[in-house]
Amino acid sequence: MAARLVEISGASVATPVVGLNRLFPRPESVAAVDLSKAGIDNATAARMRTLATSVDRQPFNFFYSTLKQKVSELCSVCGLDESTAHYLAMRAFGEPDAFPSLEPALRRKLAGMSPDRWRPWRAYAAMHITA
User: Fold this and answer.
1) What domain range is 131 assigned to?
2) Alpha helices in 1-131 (DSSP H)
3) How far apart (Å, rounded) are the C-alpha atoms in residues 85 and 100?
4) Do 21 and 71 reside in the same domain of the chain?
5) Is-above-0.85 flag for pTM?
6) What is the pLDDT of residues 25-52, one digit of tens each?
7) 32 and 69 belong to one structural domain
8) What percent of the chain has a predicted confidence (pLDDT) above 70?
9) Could you tell me if residue 18 is left (phi over 0), alpha (psi between -120 and 50 degrees) or otherwise beta?
10) Residue where a domain terminates, one of 12, 39, 59
11) Is 61 exposed, middle or buried (0-12, 13-18, 19+ CB in 10 A)?
């Protein structure tokens, strides 16, 4: 999906690397493009547009933030639920203890196990479990 998103909305760029000819789209492009053309479902597209619009209006500075601060800001500014904010913190910001507890695949695999025993590395456990 990411490759299709780049293809439909990423800016062209000239590089000496064969096949590397587009930049990842800027937030304003993500907010404006028809995300279904990238194979993104409506619910995910709505969250992506909300996040892209929020980032376009007010860039985030997560460099010195804790996981709790990042999740809180993503929830309050972008209107994301806590699990989606944790997923974003895990994937985009490399937070090792982020844990998207409402992800369906993760919930199925956990089946009653407590993720707290994996602290402070819950993101690695989540990625391993759902791989």
Assistant:
1) 63-131
2) 2-9, 27-32, 42-57, 67-78, 82-92, 104-110, 122-130
3) 8
4) no
5) no
6) 999 999 999 999 999 999 889 888 988 9
7) no
8) 97
9) beta
10) 59
11) exposed
